[in-house]
Amino acid sequence: MNFDLSADQEDLRDGIRALCAGRFTSERVRLGFDQEMHKELSDAGVFSLRTDGFSWADSSIAFQELGRVLVPGPLVWTHLANGAAGCEGIVTGVESWPDQSEAVANGEHRVMVEFGAQADTVLGLSNEGVVCFDAEAVRRAPQIDWPLDPLTPVSVLDKFPVGELFLGPDAAAQWRLGGAVLTSAYQVGMAQACVEIATSYALERDQFDRPIGSFQAIKHLLADMAVRAEVARAAVDAAAVTLDDLLTQDSAILSEVVRPVAGARVLAGEAALANAKGSLQVHGGMGFTWEMDVHLYLKRAWMLNTVFGTPTQHADFLAATLTTASG
Amino acid sequence: MDLRYSESDELFRDELRVWLKSALFSLGSVPQREDWDERVRFDTEWQKKLFDAGYAGMNWPREYGGRDASPSEQMIFLEETTRARAPYVGVNFVGTLHAGPTLVAEGTDKQKEEHLPKILSGEEIWCQCFSEPGAGSDLAGLSTRAVRDGDDYIVSGRKTWCSFGHVGEFGELLVRTDPNARKHRGITWLILPMNLPGIEVRPIETLLGSSEFCEVFLDDVRVPVENRVGEENDGWRVTNVTLAFERGTAFVTEMIDALQMAEDLAPSVVDKSERRELAHVVAELDALWALTKRNVSQAAQRGAPGPGAMMLKLAYSQVRERLGEICMRVLDRRAFDIHDFLVEERLRTLSLPIAAGTSQIQRNIIGERLLNLPKERPWLLESK
After folding, report:
1. 3-class SS at A156?
2. Which residues are CB-neighbours of A111 under 8 A, at least 6 positions away?
3. Does A7 touch chain B (CB under 8 A)?
4. Domain A170-321 has what CATH class?
5. Which of A79-93, A222-236, A260-274 has the lowest mean pLDDT?
6. Which residues contact A198 (CB under 8 A, 6 or more apart)?
7. ipTM higher than 0.85?
8. Minimum-distance CB partner of B297 among A4, A224, A316
9. Which domains are delineated in chain B?
10. How far apart are CA B237 and CA B303, in angstroms?
């Protein structure tokens, strides 16, 4: 056991961090996801990490870095689908969709697809396995003209196309776990970035003739944020490492990885959300403006808390692993 | 990052399991909280058993009776002793988790040889004499005086919240040796033999109805200069070594016990929203356990634990509070009996966000040392 980052993992982290600092500045990120960004991430190997021999833990480290600077795009789906036959280009996906009869009967069965207009491949996760949809139909669908997160465009489909099963239930189960870990990793990066951004603001913003970070009211808020991010990071790293350990065994026992993954999802989802709000509070009136990045972290946290199982669902998954009265 | 244990680690685990089974079988039942004679006998007997079997001081140097164990073995020891429901460290808390580690880091060779093996073997019980009626969160504002007189310091003052004060044979004592220096610069750390003339110990009754700590009155007590740990007036630095241990490691056993408690409680938690809340508590305790593994790994690899060590006590206090409240709701009217272990624990853990630096002080430390935020301006300067 050595739960410290290895030298290679530190290099990976520093490499992705340098990539982000150079290519994904706030100005660039605010322009949103596009083909060029997808190509740069792809060339940097972000999507092919696991097919290139890296682990879930390594991928988790990379996604923490992407989350720090809010790199937009359907990054988790594209990463999960890498190497799967027929999943080229930009990949997005959904975790629930109505069957055709429901869609016809009831107009309320609208499906929201993030980055639907840009996707080359649209996938879905069901109990039967991984399903592939007609991406062209999704690309044609109308988009929300003002999405909650301005960096996450959303397509809305009243009628969802019929899908075609192309990977079995084991793959779907693994994608759910991996997707939960990478989404959580991304959120931990966001939570950590909120600590750093709010701390530097608290050092430069003066009120009552001193930096507001000297006041305990602000300092304690920031300390709680730092703890939240660090605890969630330990949970995410542990979940990723456990995923690696179990999947390399011949008989992968997915049930044993449910608890750490669910725990990571609960804590990371909470940390991203609570730290974005904490950052908003530290920034005061400036935190309420479009100009600052604070709201982008908050809005992304809300959106990501709806994917690969909500933190509430994962709390229930975790609860189900604990003993019940009936044993 | 690797959480797997090697084959030799698993061998260590197997040996430990076998030993625990027989050692616990021959141990009597846990004494009542108020029966201090029996508590001392029980706790020190367990410590002696650990020592004789080579399991005391897992991360201490071998030359002083420790095991100098690898991070993996330290983790396995914690996992297995908890799983086997071995006794908690009890009256050996200050010695094994607080004073001992300070002596390892800062003591003279003579002090180490004299005390460390006895602490590990349960032959020496230690207590803490840090806080004073006028120096709680502002510990450096302490006023117990020590005046040099030949080979002795003559110590007078009053200490409070002295854990295990009425059973301790030695105390870790903080005194002011330079009243003219700035408050952090005039403090000295002394080993106080509790049988010296001029010491009076008065137990304080806590909200548990028992005496977990004491007041200690010092009246011209002559403490030999050779009992000084570190240099004269360098006691604040030495103290921070001690406090770093307390915040980073001393709560780990308790934390993993809490995880066991949460799992044990699970069958009694039926309501869906309460089960969700319990799941949240388990998620946090699992994460703190992972953070502990990270701290221990980093301490072994880099010589110092990462920032997580500074956070552990604050985070644990908070999650333990939530677990305690779930316990009370689950117990419902059964909680009327204070002798129920869960009720007793709910009451005992009310001290967690206060002892060893309040949660507010912990946040100051995280804010100032980790995030490099400036200190708040002193109040006295403001009013002038």
Report:
1. strand
2. A94, A97, A98, A156, A157, A160
3. no
4. mainly alpha
5. A79-93
6. A222, A225, A278, A279, A282, A283
7. yes
8. A4
9. 7-88 (1.10.540.10), 126-232 (2.40.110.10), 251-370 (1.20.140.10)
10. 18
